[in-house]
């Protein structure tokens, strides 16, 4: 599975961005999709995940109430809507696929990673 992320950019604190990630290649049904982020000098951390049927989602505490993950299986695409953004949201954002269907993803459980898209939030 290949993942192509887009939508990163620069925004002021309090602003919004929407990331997209399209899966291609040998795709399967039942897989979960999600987003991680990595700030400079820090580890890559889980941000949000969604199951195949969009009935279950999971979020990091730091983004709950501000970020919303969604997906469109007809387009093999996952989205991350980011509102009320903060400077601490600045990071490279990576989309991810877990073929087992687990929407609460650990780094070691990810089967495929996107190339990353940079998000910068200025104060």
Largest sheet: 7 strands, mixed
- State the total count of DSSP E strands: 11
Number of helices: 0
Which range does the strand content fall in?
over 45%
Indicate the radius of gyration in whole angstroms. 13 Å
Q: Which structural class do you get from the secondary structure elements?
A: mainly beta
Oligomer: single chain
Helix content: under 10%
**Low-confidence spans: pLDDT under 50, at least 5 residues?**
none
Mean pLDDT: 95
N/C terminus separation: 37 Å
What is the string of SSEs from the N terminus onward? EEEEEEEEEEE
Anisotropy-based shape:
globular
Folded structure, characterized:
The protein has 123 residues and is mainly β. The chain is 0% helix and 50% strand. The chain is built from no helices and 11 strands. The strands form 2 sheets. Strands 2, 4, 5, 6, 9, 10 and 11 form a 7-stranded mixed β-sheet that branches. Strands 1-3-8-7 form a 4-stranded antiparallel β-sheet, with no helix packed on it. It is globular, with a radius of gyration of 13 Å. The mean pLDDT is 95.
Please write out the topology:
Blueprint: E1 2-6, E2 9-12, E3 17-24, E4 32-38, E5 44-50, E6 57-59, E7 67-72, E8 77-82, E9 91-98, E10 112-113, E11 117-122
Provide a brief overview of the structure.
With about 120 residues, this protein is an all-beta fold. It has strands spanning about 1-5, 10, 15-25, 30-40, 45-50, 55-60, 65-70, 75-80, 90-100, 110-115, 115-120.
């Amino acid at each position: 599975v290949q993942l192509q992320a887009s939508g990163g950019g620069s925004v002021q604190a309090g602003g919004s961005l929407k990331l997209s990630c399209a899966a291609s290649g040998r795709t399967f049904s039942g897989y979960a999709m999600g987003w991680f982020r990595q700030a400079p000098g820090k580890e890559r951390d889980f941000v949000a995940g969604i199951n195949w049927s969009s009935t279950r989602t999971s979020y990091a505490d730091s983004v709950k109430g501000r970020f919303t993950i969604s997906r469109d299986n007809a387009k093999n695409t996952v989205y991350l809507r980011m509102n009320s953004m903060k400077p601490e949201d600045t990071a490279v954002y990576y989309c991810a696929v877990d073929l087992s269907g687990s929407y609460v993803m650990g780094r070691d459980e990810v089967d495929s990673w996107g190339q990353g898209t940079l998000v910068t939030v200025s104060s």
